[in-house]
Amino acid sequence: MYNFEYRNPVKIIFGKGSIPKVADEIPENAKILMTYGGGSIKRTGVYDQVKNALKNFDLFEFGGIEPNPHYETCMKAVELIKNEKIDFLLAVGGGSVIDATKFIAAGALYPGKDPWDFFVQRYIIEPDKAIPFGAVLTLPATGSEMNGNAVITRISTQEKLAFGSPKVLPQFSILDPECVFTLPDRQVANGIVDAFVHVMEQYLTFPVNSPLQDRFAEGILLTLVEEGPKVIANRNDYEAAANFMWSATLALNGLIATGVPQDWGTHMIGHELTAYHGIDHARTLAIVLPGIMQIKRQSKKEKILQYGERIWGITEGTDDERIDKTIAKTVDFFESMGVPCTLPEYDVPVETIAKIKERFKERESKLGENKDIGYQEVEAILKSRL
Amino acid sequence: MYNFEYRNPVKIIFGKGSIPKVADEIPENAKILMTYGGGSIKRTGVYDQVKNALKNFDLFEFGGIEPNPHYETCMKAVELIKNEKIDFLLAVGGGSVIDATKFIAAGALYPGKDPWDFFVQRYIIEPDKAIPFGAVLTLPATGSEMNGNAVITRISTQEKLAFGSPKVLPQFSILDPECVFTLPDRQVANGIVDAFVHVMEQYLTFPVNSPLQDRFAEGILLTLVEEGPKVIANRNDYEAAANFMWSATLALNGLIATGVPQDWGTHMIGHELTAYHGIDHARTLAIVLPGIMQIKRQSKKEKILQYGERIWGITEGTDDERIDKTIAKTVDFFESMGVPCTLPEYDVPVETIAKIKERFKERESKLGENKDIGYQEVEAILKSRL
């Protein structure tokens, strides 16, 4: 196990009927900006629940945050905050709304010229303060409700980039599994795949003698494999929704990353597919992950075999046969939830591979836990998904 | 799954060579009281490491905290703090030192007459402030380094009682697995049993559809079963020590308790054995747990079968046969580490059972996740361990 530091102070308020508790978590006299997305919270009643709970607060609203939230949109919220002297933010939505709110929270207090610096100069320029915020999560998927990471897309440059800081950890997140009841199939399937791949990024690496972290990771994977299909089959199965929701949060709250290497190659390559073609984030992961398993089957061999055995019960055959079966099982699982895993199924032209390759070449970035996925490997990974 | 709230802001600094980092975690100009036990930290070099790291701080010392720390001792530290205007505490030791430090931290700022109120009026009188403190953990076992609970013994009344508050969560805890290298067998074995039973208290209850929490709990149990004997066999196996240490912390940091019932009957009965006979805390748990499994085999049936299957591979026989085998395997595991599991092995006279029964009768307290362990059941549980 590697040395590590871990701290996650986010307060989780979990369970049906929890949304009205939001009023107890926000400082009296706060001037709140409630951020949200395309308005589904109005259809589902979450908007009314929150508004009603906060009727004694000074409450502003900022709707219209997109999936894969745009820098350009966030900057409008930053302006509103400065004009209205907002001092608390409340993200009501899924990972995109929460991610956007993190960027807005830090961006509003950034003394530099443009908070896009957090992304293009990541690890060099970091926020040293942010407006405090909480979240009401409506869509289990990204884990953003219990971490300090955000991914933002800048439309003008077709860039989708990430930043992270303990300054943008939510003060609290409210998780009411009944929010799952009103989600469309596509969002549930995306959420399951997203959480699943988050675990894989922290688990499917070279081994470092971390049996506890492995078992926690496998516990989340097994729960998603078991409970995910139940949620898809019956949207009103509260227990399945609750198990899915808590799994998605724990998939990316830092816990299973303690003391182990991390990959994140699937995400970095996937972001490019979203940037160029607007493919749902989770779906890009379903495309790329099998490619990484294919191309990195040697360096990840021990863990792929362990994953195949413990999650899919694959114990027979040569190592290579077991790895092939394990990749096939992973693809089957994603496809069984209606998530295709190849590029042609998303009408991605072969030319996109060259563009993405070129981008990684320019950036000179190496991905993966061994920093051995360069632009040629990116090309090979994507070609394997044609 | 039940509704729940979860927040654990303790910063964990984990790994070999981490102890000198203590200096970065304490506010400059703090007036520190370092608390410790019987002096083993002087023998192992941890004392020197801490003193050296803090040589630029104003540092006071309070040694001599006992295993099963005494109220009477803690009150001396409270007096010292008040006299010297100490504003930061640093616990250097195992669970007893950290527990004592929690009580001292809250007791020093308690406006009432006697902070023993926290124990005798638990849930009615709770600390609303405490002196901030950190910990350097030298003995993996209790999980005190990442929770807000403490157990204190009052010698004058032979009472051993618990309190808990988010006000007494450590600011940080430093976990250097190399501290395990110098522990005697007995303390390692006790630590493994203690962590194991902490998990069982939160896991071996009636089922509430919490597959993820179950798997996390099982992950800790399996890791203790695997790594514990390695630590006992080779005290310098860093990886085994690290896996044991992280398991013991996660066994009682609130995570596996989210959304599930909890028992704690083993602890409550065990505390009485320590109070009357001074038996090591962990050893009392090894005595009582098999008794609870025996007497509560009906209400805990589903979970005992699951535990037997997933931890010990027991799948054959009738339910009762499987439960018997599972209890036997649990006892075998404790005994294999040199921890006896019956009362006579600790020279506990049969009269003690009647005394303990009487005490629970007086308190009118019912234990267990179903509150169905009254004084008669306490007697039956202890008699089953003769």
UniProtKB/TrEMBL annotation, chains A, B:
Keywords: Oxidoreductase. GO terms for cellular component: cytosol. One of its GO terms (molecular function) is butanol dehydrogenase (NAD+) activity. Pfam families: ADH_Fe_C (PF25137), Fe-ADH (PF00465). The keyword Chloroplast does not apply. Transmembrane segments: none annotated. Residues 189-384 form the Fe-containing alcohol dehydrogenase-like C-terminal domain. Residues 9-177 form the Alcohol dehydrogenase iron-type/glycerol dehydrogenase GldA domain. Belongs to the iron-containing alcohol dehydrogenase family. This is Iron-containing alcohol dehydrogenase. The lineage of its organism: Bacteria, Pseudomonadati, Bacteroidota, Bacteroidia, Marinilabiliales.
